[in-house]
């Protein structure tokens, strides 16, 4: 009721003074604060009808379009903003984000560089360039830009995590660990930072330290699904499958609509030759990821282990239909078929 009253009051102010832009902006801000993006989008469009050169409304409207994946409209809005304030870095930076999102490396890079030329001391632009290069597996360039972001803003722990992630992709686990540690020094009570650090210790085979940090992440956020799953993977890697199973079951309880814990659990059960249990869990995962060819392949493989070739063929064919260009699935299917034929010939 309070929300409706506030909106009514703001609309009444607009009605009494229909050209006062601040009333519109207050209403748009209220809509954004209450997560009503459609309402905010409508208000910004109304503002631009009588104030088409309002720079901030164009930027805010573009950001809403971007969030709603209306990329053409967002690009149009930011380009109009550029025509009004060509020396403001923000619309170029936002255009860079859009083009990065739609995998247009060249246009994304061009707009980030324009933003950087206008505001060379903006750490977030260097960080965005780091992401851009990391997405195309150019880790050295990514690290260079992340480090520049750190140089400008040395207390932003996320930049350290980004360097660490890139180092990890280069298999530089010790360097990665060093930057995760630095992120943790800045923000020791962030569960995501603690989880990153735990994974880094797991990567360098420091099991005890990793487990303590997983426990710390779970202590900070008991419903932190990823912490339960990552801890389970570490237990599994250290041949502690029963502990891993318990942790994965806990993760499933926390977020039953996420598939990866089901898949990991079923994989462990297959390794333990508990095929019937594994099948049930794979099939649950397949209801979450309806058209995932990997799950269909896992189910088919499990049926092969059970000796049920009719069901195996059914699921291999399903996997090939889901991923017609995946030659690996075709090869697995051919190998299974040849093995089955050979076994029948030997039987005869």
List the defining traits of the structure above:
Serine Threonine Protein Phosphatase 5, Tetratricopeptide repeat, 348 residues, mainly alpha, globular, 20 helices
Report on this structure:
This protein has helices at 2-16, 21-33, 37-50, 55-67, 71-84, 89-101, 105-118, 123-135, 139-152, 157-169, 173-186, 191-203, 207-220, 225-237, 241-254, 260-271, 275-288, 293-306, 309-322, 327-347. It has a domain at 139-187: Tetratricopeptide repeat domain (Serine Threonine Protein Phosphatase 5, Tetratricopeptide repeat, Alpha Horseshoe), CATH 1.25.40. It is mostly helical and 348 residues long. The mean pLDDT is 92.
- Number of beta-strand segments: 0
Rg of Cα set: 26 Å
Output mean pLDDT: 92
Distance from N terminus to C terminus (CA atoms, Å) equals 79 Å
Q: If you consult CATH, what is the topology of the domain at 139-187?
A: Serine Threonine Protein Phosphatase 5, Tetratricopeptide repeat
> For this structure, what is the CATH homologous superfamily of the domain at 139-187?
Tetratricopeptide repeat domain
DSSP strand content: under 5%
Which spans have pLDDT < 50 for at least 5 consecutive residues?
Answer: none
CATH class of the domain at 139-187: Mainly Alpha
Which structural category do the helix and sheet elements fall into?
mainly alpha
At a glance:
This protein has 348 residues and is an all-alpha fold.
Can you lay out the helices and strands and say which pair or pack?
Elements: H1 2-16, H2 21-33, H3 37-50, H4 55-67, H5 71-84, H6 89-101, H7 105-118, H8 123-135, H9 139-152, H10 157-169, H11 173-186, H12 191-203, H13 207-220, H14 225-237, H15 241-254, H16 260-271, H17 275-288, H18 293-306, H19 309-322, H20 327-347
Helix pairs in contact: 1-2, 2-3, 3-4, 4-5, 4-6, 5-6, 6-7, 7-8, 8-9, 9-10, 10-11, 11-12, 12-13, 13-14, 14-15, 15-16, 16-17, 17-18, 18-19, 19-20
């Amino acid at each position: 009721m309070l929300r409706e009253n506030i909106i009514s009051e703001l609309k009444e102010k607009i009605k009494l003074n229909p050209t006062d832009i601040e009333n519109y902006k207050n209403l748009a801000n209220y809509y954004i604060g209450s997560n009503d993006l459609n309402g905010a989008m409508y208000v910004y469009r109304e503002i631009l009808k009588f104030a088409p050169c309002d720079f901030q409304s164009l930027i805010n409207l573009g950001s809403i379009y971007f969030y709603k994946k209306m990329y053409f409209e967002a690009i149009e809005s930011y380009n109009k903003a550029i025509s009004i304030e060509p020396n403001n870095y923000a619309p170029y930076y936002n255009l860079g984000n859009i083009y990065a999102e739609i995998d247009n490396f060249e246009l994304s890079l061009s707009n980030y560089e324009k933003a950087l030329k206008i505001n060379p001391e903006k750490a977030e632009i260097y960080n965005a360039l780091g992401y851009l290069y990391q997405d195309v597996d150019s880790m050295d360039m990514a690290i260079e830009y992340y480090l520049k972001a750190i140089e400008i803003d040395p207390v932003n722990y996320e930049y350290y995590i980004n360097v660490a992630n890139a180092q990890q992709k280069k298999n530089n686990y010790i360097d990665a660990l060093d930057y995760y540690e630095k992120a943790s020094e800045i923000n020791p009570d962030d569960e995501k930072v603690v989880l990153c650090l735990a994974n880094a210790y797991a990567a360098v085979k420091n099991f005890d330290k990793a487990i303590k940090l997983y426990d710390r992440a779970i202590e900070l956020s008991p419903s932190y699904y990823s912490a339960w799953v990552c801890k389970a993977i570490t237990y599994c890697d250290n041949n502690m499958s029963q502990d891993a199973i318990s942790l994965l079951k806990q993760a499933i309880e926390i977020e039953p609509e996420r598939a990866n814990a089901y898949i990991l659990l079923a994989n462990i059960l297959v390794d333990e030759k508990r095929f019937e249990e594994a099948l049930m869990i794979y099939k649950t995962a397949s209801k979450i990821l309806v058209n995932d060819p990997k799950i269909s392949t896992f189910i088919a493989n499990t049926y092969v282990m059970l000796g049920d070739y009719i069901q195996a063929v059914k699921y291999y064919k399903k996997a090939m239909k889901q991923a017609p260009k995946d030659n690996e699935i075709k090869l697995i299917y051919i190998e299974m078929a040849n093995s089955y034929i050979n076994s029948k010939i030997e039987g005869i």
